[in-house]
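ok trying again, last paste got cut off:
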Amino acid sequence: MGTDGRGGAPWQALARPGFLRGGLPWRAAGYLLASGTAGLLLCAGLLLAGTVAGALAVLLVGLPLLLGLGLVGVPFAAWERRLVRLLDGAPVPGPHQVPARPGLPAWLRLRYRERATWRELGFAALAAFVLWPIDLTVAGCAIAVPGYLLAALPLLLLDGEQVNVLKLWQVHSPYVAAALGVAGVLAAALLAYPLTAVAAGRAALVRAVLAPGGQEARIGELVRSRARLVDAFEAERRRIERDLHDGAQQRLVALAMTLGLARLDAPPGSPLADRLAQAHREAGDVLAELRELINGIHPQVLTDRGLPDACADAADRSPVPVDVTFALPGRLPAAVESAGWFAVTEALANVAKHSGARSARVDGRYADGLLTVEVSDDGRGGADPAGGTGLTGLADRVSVVDGTLTVSSPPGGPTLLRVEIPCTPIGPRAEDLTRTSGLTPTPGGPHTPDRP
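nice, full thing came through this time. structure:
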C-alpha cells in the first residue's frame, strides 16, 4: 500500500525506488526510539520492583509483588503490539482468551495458566535487558550522525571560529563544514536502510513471539465459532417454536372449533355425530401433543419471564412433587437460560422415569459470576451416564456454554445433579427474581398452559 510500506512488509519497501521519499524511515526511527525508551523504563522498574520484593520477601510481604511480576509482560506486550502498528500499520492480534467468569480472580487464574503469558514475560525480560540498548543505539546513530554533520555549517557560522563535529575533530573552514553537510545528507540516506532493517526485524520478532500461535488461533476461532453456533441454534429454536405456535397450532385450533360447530348441526345419536365427535377428540389430542412439542422446543415462559418461572412450569408438569427455589440477580443470557432450563427438564424427566423418587427439589443461585442449578431427589440412586439416562447428552449441552455437569448418585440414593455455568446478568427484571414454590402434580396429569 504505497511506497512507504504501510500495511505491508517493510522488507519489501526497502527494495522500492521511492523508499527514501516515503515516511517509513521516519516511522522506523520513531518506532525504535519508542520501543527503546519503553524497554529502558521497564528495565528500571523491574530492577526496583525486584529489589523491593526480594527485601520484603523475608517478611512474606514481598511475595504478592513477586507474583505480580509474573504478569508484567501482559501490559508490556499489549503496548508492543500497539506500537508495531506505527511501523507497518498492520494490527497484531492478542493471544489471550476471555475469562469464562467475570472478576479479577478468574482473570488471574486464566492468565497464569496461559502459555502466552509466559511468552510475554520472556519478551519483556528480553526487551528490558537486551533490546533497548540496541534500539536506542541504532536510532541514535541514524539520527545523531547525520544531524551533527548537517549542523556543522550553521554552528560554524554562529560561532565564527570553529565547530566540533561529533566531538572528534575541529572544523574551521566553511567549505569543509559545507562538505560535511553534504556528507550528512548522504549519511542520512544510507543509514535509513539499516535503520529500517533493524526496525523491521524487531517488529518481526514482536509478531513471532507476541501474536497468537497456530494452536491458540485455532482455539480462539473454535471458541468464537461455538458462540456463533449457540446463538444461531437458539435463534432457530425460537423461530421453530414461533412458527409452530402461530401457524400449525392456530390452524388446529380453528379445525377443532369447526368440528365442534359441525357436531352441533349433526343429528344427535347419528353415525355422523359419532364420527364428528371422534374427529373432535382426535383434533384435541393432536393439539395437546403439539403444545407439548412447542413447549419442549423453547417455552415461551422462558423468553418472557426467565429461568425461575420456566423451571417452575417444568416442575408443575412433573408427575413427581417438586420444590423450586431460585435466587438470581437478574435475567441471564438467552443461551445460559436455555441450557439451565434444559438441564432441569432433563433431570426431572430422569427423576420421573428412573429414580422411583417420592419428591424432588430444584435449587438455583448466582454468585461470583457462576450460575449453579441443583436438582436432587430421594430416589434409589445409581444414575449412570452410560445407562442411557440422557446425562451424556445433557453434559454435552451444558458444555456448549462452558458449563460443567456433576452427578452424585450412590446406590440407594439420594441423587444430586449440579450444573454450573459461568455468565454475567444482562439486566434486572421488573419483578424480584427470588422465587420459592412448592409444587405438586395436578390431578389427572400435568397441565400444559398455552401462551397468550
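cool. Residues 84 and 204 are 9 Å apart (CA to CA). The longest strand covers residues 360-367.
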